[in-house]
Each structure stands twice: as structure tokens, then as C-alpha cells.
Design brief:
Strand content: 25-35%
GO molecular function: ATP binding; carbohydrate binding; protein serine kinase activity; protein serine/threonine kinase activity
Largest sheet: 6 strands, mixed
Radius of gyration: 30 Å
Domain Protein kinase: 504-779
Signal peptide: 1-22
Shape: globular
Pfam families: B_lectin, PK_Tyr_Ser-Thr
Protein name: Receptor-like serine/threonine-protein kinase
CATH class of the largest domain: Mainly Alpha
Length: 787
């Protein structure tokens, strides 16, 4: 049904588009060109009149030696958000260029001058980057010959329209701009449909969301009020995809993006002139579909996540893909490829084969598809046993209603959530270090015999002893127990006995520090998706221990970032103070760096960027600023994908909202401690920046900050790097490191950032937000650091 209000709204949109096309701007004249800048320098671009959008050659976030022709938001200080790129599957090397030729063609060329892309339009008189985010080629009569809005990538902007047969294709991952697994298509029959597609061929699998409108030649319109509608040819409103009308487009940037997890999200970000107090970040206002993990079940393809992995959500409702127990990523940098088992599956050569294998139970999980047998009626225990004895069976799903579904590899459409009514029994190889609590085996109970031998006298003694111990423990608990409300209501409170059993009486030590010792534990995959956890046992009870314990809990329980270790729970019983964390399977950064084997260059770069982003979050993005105070390789852990996670917040300081400095005693570790600690002056977040700078150099060159056995000139890493930089001998720092030598532009940029971080005066050091931008190449490092 048509609406007069909608007609006026659309008329407003048309007027806005016309005005945008005719707005005053600096026309890009024929023979104008842009060429990729040297690594570390600001890349030249053509800006829109307001400076809101830029058109140019942008380095990839994961490899600054490769470039995309792109349009991006140019006024955002802390992030680079790309909205359009035509060469996403073919990034170009340095010295590539884009040219508006003398005959009016837009031409993207590699360093040899060979054309790799053009929009198929010629005879333009000029080009322009508009304030709407649209890049246009304009004829001599001022008509638009071509516009980027007509050839979108994964994003739609206000005033943009997707006509019939238009599509958006998601990125492969957050940092990989290649064509991904998901597509949004405006169908000629009027439906708006989301599809799962194959990588890299683009073969279209089943749809997983549809508007169901069926009105031919409809279009998707992003109106200036902040809503994205499907509109019929007669301008009738058919359906609203997303809406964020509470955030005006005059005060907020808007974008609608088909993200790499297959969800279309409507984001807003305050403009520089926006109302005070707005969060300076992209905020999700609306999205479709509401629950992609459970909504996307496909007969072909892997589902939302890769094969043999499962889909869950983080606290921002973003999809997180995980490998189940016994499996690991095929390629940690390409999660869409899925997971592989870490043991040898049974062979069917000898028929039934259960020796050497066991079943692990995982609740609230299902893998839809690849069923090859259904057993009914079947008990849960028999379902498990049937799969164990079947050489074809990799996993059995019991639905709680006497149905048992056997599944072969690869597993697809994996989902783990509280509303999933399924229990998986997953077949694993028998390993001594697998958690016995997860292994469901028939047990022979000896308790009746024991009781018969004990008799009533023994029972009375036991009861009296337990009563005495209970009363004694209660008194001690009243003296020493902290209030759980102080520690964090959303964390799991463990008993000491639970953690003692989980760690096998604290038998496997992972590491130790000034505050306590960390042990490996086994408690099932319910908390983290893996059976392992790390249990930090603080030193024997002393008055200051409670302060360190409460400090660490309060610091971490209010944070959530992929580069911080996640706190799962704690034990606050009597004088026992323990902290329970995610288990990081690749140990500490220190053991990874200083074991005599040089890690791959790109892995080192990724670790540096990850730590920087984690510290930026602590300093600038938390509701309460947190200064870590002890940044060093021993306090950075590596997860299964070698993603760095900052840990050990026992020395952290929390600042009030109106506080930038604090007075405290010297904290931290020799070699990483900023000079201001020794001046009895107030410290700020710049102490973490100093420590980070030292650690960047250690990661770059795979050596400790202090090496007493080296020549005197090389013994102190920061001094040696400073000398080499001052003498123009940075290549001496990476001698023998072929991967780093092939990327000297980035080596130089990272060294310059590190030298700025270790300046003696805190005021001269950049913030972690500025550090991250410089490392990513988003801003130039200017001036050069003083040495």
C-alpha cells in the first residue's frame, strides 16, 4: 500500500541525490593521477568537499605492501573503514596508480602500466568524490556516466539505491577484503535474498534469509532519515531491512554492511561535529538476520562457520567460530576453511573399532546435516556406545527424545547455544592428558562395600570430624572472605575443591610470577568451548593479597576484547584466592620469541598489532581507563591461533573518569619500567606505552631487551636500535632475517613507532590510539623520532 509520507521521504532522497550531484566540489581533471606512497607515509587521495570521504589507493591492514583502490571514511581518527573497492580480489603492489586519462577513462594500473581495472565508461570531462560517498565520472553536459554507487562492494550508504540485479558480497574476513561466503541480492522478482556462496568460485548455495515480498523490479533504498527500505516501482514500502532513525544522518555517519559472518548490520558513528558524549566508535543499531547461527542451516556448504567448527556469539552479538575439543584450525588465518581433527580417525578396514578411542560429551550443540543413520528408540548411553563402536561415526547427536543421529566427517552447520536442544558425543583418540571429567565411561562404584566395612562407629566419627571442620572453616571464612559483590556478579564462583580436582591437585604448572603460580586445569568445554583452563593460585594469604586479587578481578571482569585474556571465574573461599582464565594453548609470548626459533614475520607483525589494539582498548575504550603497569612478553599469552592476549592484571591501576594520572609505588619488571616510576611522580597510561615500545623491538628482532653475553654496543636493545636508526643502518638489525629484509618499509615504520614509545619524557610518547594508527599505516610518522 502506498504512503504519502513515504512518497515525500523518497522525494527528499531524490532532491538530496540531485543536490549532491550538483554540489560545489573540486573537480578531478583529466590526466590527474594518484600513485601509492612509500611505506609509512600518508597515501594521497581525492577528498570530498567536506573531507568526509576519500578516494585513493589504500594499503591492506595485514600487508602494507599491497594496495586497494578504495573509498573510505576519511574523518575517523581511530579507524579506516572502507566502503567500496573494485580490486578486492587483486590487491596491487607499490608504485601502482589510478589515472583519469586524457580521453576520460578511469584506469587502475599496476607498476608496469598494465591496466587491471576500469569501470567501462569513457569520454568523461571530469570526476568527483561527493560528500555522499559516491565517486562519479561526469560528462560535458554534467550527466553522470558512471558512479561507484552503481557498482557496490559490501556496503550501502545514505542516498544510495540498489536496483534489481544488484548485489553486495561480504569480505572473506575482517582483514581479508577478498570475496567472501555471503551475498545479498536484489532479485528481479522483487525479493531481497541472502545467500551462502562457495569460496573462491562464488557458486550460490541455498538462501538463508529472504524478504518474501515478490514485487517485481523493487529496489533497496537507504533514505536520509536513517532507514533501509525495500521499495516497489510505485514507491510503496514493501519492508524495512534495518533502521537507525534515532541517529540523524546530519550528526552521524551511517553505513549498512554485509559483514564477513553473513549478517547485514546497520552501523552509526558520530561525526566530528556531533553531539557531545557520543561514543567515538561504530555502533550497531540494527541487523538481519536476528540469529544467523541457528537460522542458517544449509544442505550444501559448511554453514556460517567452516567445516568441523561451530557458531557462537560474543557479547556484541558478533559471530565467533570455534573448533570443538579434539580439533584445531586448518589455517588459523583462514577460519572459513574450518577445523581438522588432531588425532587419527578409526579405520574401517577391520570393521568395528573402538579400541584407542573415547567419547567426549558436549551439551547444547548440534551439527545439522551429514546424518547417515538415525536410531530410535535409543537411550543417551546407547547412542554414545553405538557411535564409539561404529568406525564410520565421528559424532553422535542425542536430541533428548530417544533419537540418536550418527554423523560422518566433515561436520557442517555447527551451532552451540543455550537454546540448542542437542548433546554431542564426539569421538576422540585416547590421550593421557584428556580430561577424565568429560570422558563418559562405565564406572564400578565401591561405596556400598566401603560403607559395609566402616560400620556406624566410623560414620559417627566422620560426622563429628566434618562438623568440627565445618565450624572452623566458617569462622575462618568470616575473617578472610571477600564479598562476591565486590568481585563481579557475572563471574562463576568456584569452590577450592572443584579447582583442586580440575588441576589434579595443582600438578601441572604453566608458569609463576610475583603474584602467584598458574596451573593447567580440565573442567569441560562448557565455559570456553575447550576442556582446558588456566588456574592462577595467588601466594599464601597476606593482607596485600586480597587487594591484588580484587584488583585483578575488577580490572578484567569489566573488559571484553579479543586481545585480552578472558576471566571465567574465581575462588574466594577461606584464605584461598584463585583466578580461572581461558587456557592459552601456545603459552607466553616470551617462550614463543626466545626459544631459538625465529617466528614467521607476518606472525610477529600480527602479534604487535594485536597487543597494540588490546592496550588501546584498556586506555581509551573502557568505561574506566585501565593502566596495566606490567606489560612484558611473559604477560602476553598466545591462543590456539597465535592471537596475542594481554594477561596478569594484578598490578593494574584503574583511573576515575576525570583522572589521567595516579600516584603509586614502583610496579612492573626491570627493563620495561618507564623512567617516571623512579621520579616519585604521578604516572599515566604512558608507562604502558613505554613498555610496549620495548616489547615491539623484542618482537621485531626476536631477542631480549638485555643480553649480557652480547657485545657492549648490542647488549641493550633500545640503545642499539637507536644507534642503528641514527646511523641509517636499520638493515643491520634484521641481518639474517630474510622475511623482514623483504619488508624493510614496515620494519622502518615499526622501529620509528617503538622509538617514539620509549622517549624519556612521557609527554613526548604517543597514545596507544596514535601508536595503533601509525603501526597500521593509517597516519604518517611525522616528525621522525628524536634519538
Amino acid at each position: 500500500m502506498e504512503s504519502p509520507l513515504l512518497f515525500l521521504l523518497l522525494l527528499h532522497t531524490v532532491i538530496t541525490i540531485t543536490a549532491a550531484s550538483a554540489q560545489p566540489h573540486s573537480n578531478i581533471t583529466l590526466n590527474s593521477s594518484l600513485t601509492t606512497a612509500i611505506a609509512g607515509a600518508r597515501n594521497p587521495s581525492w577528498l570530498s568537499p567536506s573531507g568526509d570521504f576519500a578516494f585513493g589507493l589504500l594499503p591492506l591492514p595485514t600487508n602494507s605492501s599491497l594496495f586497494l583502490l578504495a573509498i573510505w571514511f576519511a574523518n575517523l581518527p581511530n579507524t579506516t573503514t572502507v566502503v567500496w573497492t573494485p580490486n578486492r580480489d587483486n590487491p596491487l603492489p607499490p608504485n601502482s596508480s589510478v589515472i583519469l586519462t586524457s580521453d576520460g577513462r578511469l584506469s587502475l594500473r599496476d607498476p608496469s602500466g598494465t591496466e587491471v581495472w576500469n569501470p567501462g565508461s569513457s569520454a568523461a570531462s571530469y570526476a568527483a568524490m561527493l560528500d555522499t560517498g559516491d565517486f562519479v565520472l561526469v560528462a560535458s553536459d554534467h550527466s553522470v556516466l558512471w558512479e561507484s554507487f552503481s557498482d557496490p562492494t559490501d556496503t550501502i550508504l545514505p542516498t544510495q539505491t540498489l536496483s534489481p540485479n544488484s548485489k553486495l558480497v561480504a569480505k572473506l574476513s575482517e582483514d581479508d577484503f577478498s570475496d567472501g561466503k555471503f551475498k545479498l541480492a536484489v532479485q528481479p522478482d522483487g525479493d531481497l535474498v541472502f545467500y551462502l556462496v562457495a569460496v573462491p568460485t562464488g557458486f550460490q548455495y541455498n538462501s538463508y534469509w529472504t524478504s518474501g515480498t515478490n514485487t517485481s523490479n523493487s529496489s533497496l533504498v537507504f533514505d536520509v532519515s536513517g532507514s533501509i527500505h525495500l521499495i516497489s516501482p510505485t514507491k510503496a514500502l514493501l519492508t524495512t531491512l534495518t533502521s537507525a532513525t534515532t541517529k540523524s544522518t546530519s550528526d552521524f555517519y551511517h553505513r549498512g554492511t554485509l559483514d564477513s559472518d553473513g549478517v547485514f548490520r546497520h552501523y552509526v558513528h558520530p561525526k566530528p561535529s556531533a553531539i557531545a558524549g557520543a561514543a567515538a566508535e561504530w555502533v550497531i543499531m540494527d541487523f538481519k538476520p536476528a540469529d544467523i547461527c541457528t537460522n542458517m542451516i544449509t544442505s550444501l556448504g559448511s554453514g556460517v562457520c567452516g567445516f568441523n567448527s561451530y557458531c557462537t556469539y560474543d557479547t556484541n552479538k558478533k559471530v565467533v567460530c570455534q573448533c570443538p575439543v579434539g580439533y584445531t584450525w586448518i589455517d588459523p588465518n583462514r577460519a572459513y576453511m574450518g577445523c581438522k581433527h588432531t588425532f587419527t580417525m578409526p579405520s574401517c578396514i577391520s570393521g568395528v573399532q573402538s579400541e584407542g578411542f573415547q567419547m567426549v560429551r558436549v551439551d547444547n550443540i548440534n551439527f545439522w546435516g551429514n546424518d547417515y543413520d538415525r536410531l530410535n528408540p535409543m537411550t543417551e548411553a546407547d547412542c554414545e556406545q553405538q557411535c564409539l563402536e561404529d568406525c564410520f561415526c565421528a559424532t553422535a547427536i542425542y536430541d533428548g527424545q530417544n533419537n540418536c543421529w550418527k554423523k560422518k566427517l566433515p561436520l557442517s552447520n555447527g551451532v552451540k547455544a543455550s537454546n540448542v536442544n542437542g548433546t554431542a558425543f564426539m569421538k576422540l583418540g585416547n590421550y593421557d592428558n584428556l580430561p577424565i571429567v568429560n570422558v563418559t565411561k562405565k564406572r564400578i562404584w565401591l561405596l556400598p562395600g566401603f560403607l559395609a566395612l566402616g560400620g556406624s562407629v566410623l560414620l559417627n566419627i566422620i560426622v563429628l570430624y566434618l562438623t568440627y571442620m565445618f565450624l572452623r572453616a566458617s569462622k575462618r571464612k568470616q575473617r578472610h572472605q571477600l564479598k562476591d559483590s565486590i568481585l563481579g556478579p557475572n563471574l562463576k564462583a568456584f569452590t577450592y575443591k572443584e579447582l583442586e580436582e580440575a588441576t589434579k591437585s595443582f600438578g601441572e604448572e604453566l608458569g609463576r610470577g610475583a603474584c602467584g603460580t598458574v596451573y593447567k586445569g580440565y573442567l569441560g568445554p562448557e565455559l570456553t568451548g575447550t576442556p582446558y583452563l588456566a588456574v592462577k593460585k595467588l601466594r599464601d594469604f597476606q593482607p596485600e593479597i586480597d587487594k591484588e586479587f580484587a584488583n585483578e578481578v575488577k580490572s578484567i571482569c569489566q573488559t571484553h576484547h579479543k586481545n585480552l585474556v578472558r576471566l571465567l571465574g574465581y575462588c574466594n573461599q577461606d584464605t584461598n584466592r584463585l583466578l580461572v582464565y581461558e587456557y592459552m594453548s601456545n603459552g607466553s609470548l616470551a617462550s614463543f620469541l626466545f626459544n631459538g626459533i625465529r617466528p614467521p614475520w607476518e606472525q610477529r607483525v600480527g602479534i604487535i598489532l594485536g597487543i597494540a589494539r588490546g592496550l588501546r582498548y584498556l586506555h581509551e575504550e573502557c568505561s574506566t581507563q585501565i593502566i596495566h603497569c606490567d606489560i612484558k612478553p611473559q604477560n602476553v599469552l598466545l591462543d590456539v591461533n597465535f592471537v596475542p592476549r594481554i594477561s596478569d592484571f594484578g598490578l593494574a591501576k584503574l583511573l576515575k573518569k576525570d583522572q589521567t594520572r595516579t600516584n603509586t609505588g614502583i610496579r612492573g619488571t626491570k627493563g620495561y619500567v618507564a623512567p617516571e616510576w623512579f621520579r616519585n611522580a604521578g604516572i599515566s597510561a604512558k608507562v604502558d606505552v613505554y613498555s610496549f615500545g620495548v616489547m615491539v623491538l623484542e618482537i621485531l628482532f626476536c631477542r631480549r631487551n638485555v643480553e649480557k653475553d652480547m657485545d657492549e654496543e648490542k647488549a641493550l636493545l633500545t640503545f642499539w636500535v637507536s644507534d642503528c636508526y641514527n646511523d641509517g643502518r636499520i638493515d643491520a638489525l634484521v641481518e639474517g632475517d630474510e622475511e623482514a629484509m623483504a619488508d624493510m618499509g614496515r620494519v622502518q615504520r615499526f622501529v620509528m613507532v617503538a622509538l617514539w614509545c620509549v622517549q624519556e619524557e612521557p609527554a613526548m610518547r604517543p597514545t596507544m590510539g596514535q601508536v595503533t594508527q601509525m603501526l597500521e599505516g593509517a597516519v604518517a610518522i611525522n616528525p621522525v623520532p628524536p634519538v
